[in-house]
Amino acid sequence: MKLRPKTAISEFFSDIKDPRVERHKRHKLIDIITITICAVISGIEHWTEIQSYGETKYKWFKQFLALPHGVPSHDTFSRVFQALNPEELQRCFLNWTQSVFQISKGEIIPIDGKTLRHSYDTAEDKKAIHMVSAWSTKNKLVLGQVKVDKKSNEITAIPSLLNKLKLKGAIVTLDAMGCQKKIVEQIVKQEADYLITLKKNQSGLYEASEELFIKANRFHNSGLTY
To answer: Structural domain of residue 189, as residue ranges?
Structure first.
């Protein structure tokens, strides 16, 4: 029997529960997950393209994946990921990314909220899914994300996301929604710096900051002639 070395992906995703019926399995779950992750990191988004990517890289994947029936079809990729527990998948993915991609000092980590396209269903009165994500500008990879509860907003989701991240030495950027005292305190507590948009939704802080800049401008420009 030929032994195959374990990949980092296999070590972190091996405990995900396989939702498929045993007798219907033709492809190993870890093979499906590994090919998908590699494809997505390469900038591929659609299932048909993920299948093509796997076929193009088949010889390379075969070095460490079983692939007993070759590369899965795009329908198989789609069905399996729709059936997987999203919370389990996210937990494994976050653990993997944080072990492989270490945040370096001064690295910019943007945190932003986005609504997933085609995640709504009018017929079933299903509202669109809104996610808050942290992005590594250096590694071009999502470091973590949380779903915004339908009864909440980004203000409550951001602290939950921050708790999942190792931010020491990084610079976290946020839009005006994240300009909240508790969020700033949490970023500082996690030994990171921040750059946050300030708008008039924080009227007191906005006016104080505006006045500070006006005074600074007068002081530094005094005595200048143009």
So the answer is: 105-216
- With vertex at residue 50, the alpha carbon angle to CA 6 and CA 12, rounded to the nearest 5 degrees, is 30
Task: Provide the number of structural domains found in the chain.
Answer: 2
pLDDT, position 117 = 55
Instruction: State both tokens at 105.
Output: 């000092």
Query: Could you report the average pLDDT of every consecutive run of 10 residues in the chain (226 residues)?
Result: 56 91 92 93 89 97 95 95 88 80 82 68 59 84 79 81 90 93 95 94 91 84 57
DSSP for 53-95, written as a single string = HHHHTHHHHTTT---BTBSPPHHHHHHHHHHS-HHHHHHHHHH
In a domain, 221, yes or no: no
Partnered with residue 141 across adjacent β-strands are: 136
Q: Are residues 154 and 90 in the same domain?
A: no
Beta pairing, strands 130-136 & 108-115: antiparallel
Residue 186 lies in a domain: yes
- Same domain, yes or no: 172 and 88: no
Q: Which amino acid is at 167?
A: L
Model confidence pTM above 0.70: no
Instruction: Give the C-alpha distances (Å, rounded to integers) separating 78 from 42, 81, 167, 177.
Output: 18, 5, 33, 34
